[in-house]
UniProtKB/TrEMBL annotation:
Gene3D superfamilies, alphabetized: 3.30.70.240, Elongation factor 4, C-terminal domain, Elongation Factor G (Translational Gtpase), domain 3, P-loop containing nucleotide triphosphate hydrolases, Translation factors
Membrane topology: Peripheral membrane protein
Cited InterPro entries: EF-4 (IPR006297), EFG_III/V (IPR035647), EFG_V-like (IPR000640), EFTu-like_2 (IPR004161), G_TR_CS (IPR031157), LepA_C_sf (IPR038363), LepA_CTD (IPR013842), LepA_IV (IPR035654)
Subcellular location(s) per record: Cell membrane
Major site of localization recorded for this protein: membrane
Source organism phylogeny: Bacteria, Bacillati, Actinomycetota, Actinomycetes, Micrococcales
Family that this chain belongs to: Belongs to the TRAFAC class translation factor GTPase superfamily. Classic translation factor GTPase family. LepA subfamily.
Residues engaged in binding GTP: D16, H17, G18, K19, S20, T21, N132, K133, I134, D135
Protein name as it appears in the record: Elongation factor 4
Limits of the Tr-type G domain: 4-185
EC number: 3.6.5.n1
Single GO term (MF): translation elongation factor activity
Organism: Glutamicibacter ardleyensis
Length: 596
């Protein structure tokens, strides 16, 4: 296709502002999907995505659209909608010339609207401001058009108004995409360069890689090279999604499509990498490539120890489709054999866990998630700690923890309350802007560990649900962090060790010892539960001794009842874990971890 007839764009929006609905409507308006075949949310392929109503993986669709008698090819590139996947969003944006900035006409601008807009501006995209859901009775298109115009510095009249639901304004929007966005530019006779913006494992076809060609041309049966690793592959098939795959004789400057090489593992075809021709390679890659970096680690253990090999196989399978998933075996006194698994964020963790349970039929326990620390030991060696148990005892010079820059949007009346929350989480205010009289944007730097677990819940409850949050990784800082261990009768219980700020160590110790005192049944002897930093005890509880005689309850001669009780006790024993001399039901560990 002649590059002047191509337009590459994406839709960026806050969650639930209607991106998928609008994308579906565009597929229908351009006729690539008939109303009959229209499955709601065509672009969300995975069941789990549909279930949760979120988009995790990006994909591109080519749609024809005619303006003034000329037919153009519109490539719509779908972007994932959650903070865990910021890097993937940035690569999808880099594959486009422009973005539709979609805002719910009943809600106005939200934190993700801003975060995505900033990313789009960093990628030099042209922005088309659009208000969606104008059919809603409580829509306030005039008010929010003004807000949006102020934000991006355009005229109010330039803000388009659509309804993805009724289709109103959608055809005009497609016209504007062609009129307002520039055609892609590239050098047709240069060595081929294409950027990978998505990579998906398919059971039948192996890895399907989505690319945007920048220079030159990629043709079937050529040998291609991944520029980050130098590995080469035969290009078996290349084509466009319309939205079903249509093979082609080659993709040239500005084109967007898929390719297949027969590799079986997405790590051989990495998002952000540049593909070139291995016979006539480009000298410079397109830039912007980053290795996926797990931000949050958690131990995953099968409830039933005999499921350990099944868990390993399941993780191996998931990794084919998920370059960001990393894991290695670990063992725990409390939980047995399992894996330490790295994730991009908490949502990524939840999705992975759900898939392991639903698709592989496993019952799992996960330990409290932790972020990754860099620790400088006394001998000046820097080590990476992904598990609290690896935290060196005593001899430490510095601990570095990951930081994020966060964007919080809230009604102005809640400023004080939001500030209080952020200060309690060791945050630093970086700036504050009023988007309108009643709405404020606050920018904070916060430790990742302080926001990754329950920060959003607290933010929501302090602002009666009106605040929105977005964040991205932003370097590291040195902090006064310590490891708190939990001891049962002097014996350390590894699954409960945590790395916390020194000021919060006491609170963690009190919370955890208190919880375990409730959960662990009495033994024949007194059991002290302690929280300690190194050898210093910071909190203490104890479980009083009892003489546990289950038969004492059965007065008289009902022998069958006695037998039943004895059997019950035996069955209960099987699920007991021994920590030193203390018997702990596995459920107690699970309960302590799950409410943590
Ligand atoms: P994520 O994929 O989770 O980011 O959400 P999304 O932005 O893709 O939103 P989605 O298209 O799933 O729409 C969110 C909700 O808004 C759904 O319940 C839609 O039915 C509804 N919705 C979307 N567009 C419109 C619209 O134009 N009018 C009305 N009334 N509702 C809409």
């Amino acid at each position: 296709t002649d590059p002047s007839l191509i337009r590459n764009f994406c839709i960026i929006a806050h969650i639930d502002h209607g991106k998928s609905t609008l994308a579906d409507r565009m597929l229908q308006s351009t006729g690539v999907v008939s109303s009959r075949d229209m499955k709601a949310q065509y672009l969300d392929r995975m069941d789990i995505e549909r279930e949760r109503g979120i988009t995790i993986k990006s994909q591109a669709v080519r749609m024809p659209w005619e303006v003034d008698g000329v037919t153009y090819a519109l490539n719509m590139i779908d972007t994932p909608g959650h903070v865990d996947f910021t890097y993937e969003v940035s690569r999808s944006l880099a594959a486009c010339e422009g973005a539709i900035l979609l805002v719910d006409a009943a809600q106005g601008i939200e934190a993700q609207t801003l975060a995505n807009l900033y990313l789009a501006i960093e990628s030099d995209l042209n922005i088309i401001p659009v208000l969606n859901k104008i059919d809603l009775p409580n829509a306030q298109p005039e008010k929010y058009a003004l807000e949006l115009a102020n934000l991006i510095g355009c005229e109010v009249e330039d803000v388009l108004k659509v309804s993805g639901k009724t289709g109103e304004g959608v055809e005009d929007l497609l016209d504007e995409v062609i009129k307002q966005l520039p055609a892609p530019k590239g050098v047709a006779d240069a060595p081929a360069r294409a950027m990978i913006f998505d990579s998906v494992y398919d059971t039948y076809r192996g890895v399907v890689t989505y690319v945007r060609v920048v220079d030159g041309m990629l043709r079937p049966r050529e040998r291609i090279q991944m520029m980050s690793t130098g590995t080469t592959h035969e290009l078996l098939e290349i084509g466009v999604s319309a939205p079903n795959p249509v093979p082609s004789k080659g993709l040239g400057v500005g084109e967007v499509g898929y390719l297949i090489t027969g590799v079986k593992d997405v790590r051989q075809s990495k998002v952000g990498d540049t593909i070139t021709n291995s016979i006539k390679p480009a000298t410079e890659s397109l830039g912007g490539y980053e290795d996926p970096k797990p931000m949050v680690f958690s131990g995953l253990y099968p409830m039933d120890g005999s499921d350990y090999p099944a868990l390993r196989d399941a993780l191996d399978k998931l990794q084919l489709n998920d370059a960001a998933l990393v894991y290695e075996p670990e063992t725990s006194v409390a939980l047995g054999f399992g894996f330490r698994v790295g994730f991009l964020g908490l949502l990524h963790l939840e999705i992975t866990r759900e898939r392991l349970e639903a698709e592989f039929n496993l019952d799992l326990i996960s330990t409290a998630p932790n972020v990754v620390y860099e620790v400088m030991r006394e001998d000046k060696v820097m080590i990476t700690v992904t598990n609290p148990s690896e935290f060196p005892e005593g001899k430490i010079l510095e601990v570095h923890e990951p930081l994020v820059s966060a964007t919080i949007l809230a009604p102005a009346e809640f400023i004080g309350s939001v500030m209080e929350l952020c200060q309690g989480r060791r945050g630093t205010l970086r700036g504050m802007d009023y988007l309108s009289e009643e709405r404020v944007e606050m920018r904070y730097t916060l430790p990742l560990a302080e926001i990754v677990f329950d920060f959003f819940d607290h933010l929501k409850s302090r602002t009666r649900g009106y605040a929105s949050l977005d964040w991205k990784a932003d370097g590291q800082q040195i902090a006064d962090l310590v490891k708190v261990d939990i001891l049962l009768q002097g014996e350390q219980v590894d699954a409960f060790s945590a790395i916390t700020h020194r000021d919060k160590a006491y609170a963690y110790g009190v919370m955890m010892t208190g919880k375990l005192r409730e959960l662990i049944p009495r033994q024949q002897f007194e059991v002290p539960i302690q929280a300690a930093i190194g050898s210093r005890i910071i909190a203490r509880e104890s479980i009083r001794a009892i003489r546990k005689d289950v038969l004492a309850k059965c007065y008289g001669g009902d022998i069958s009842r006695k037998r039943k009780l004895l059997e019950k006790q035996k069955a209960g024993k099987k699920r007991m874990k021994m920590v030193g001399r203390v018997e702990v039901p596995q459920e107690a560990f699970i309960a302590a971890l799950s409410t943590g």
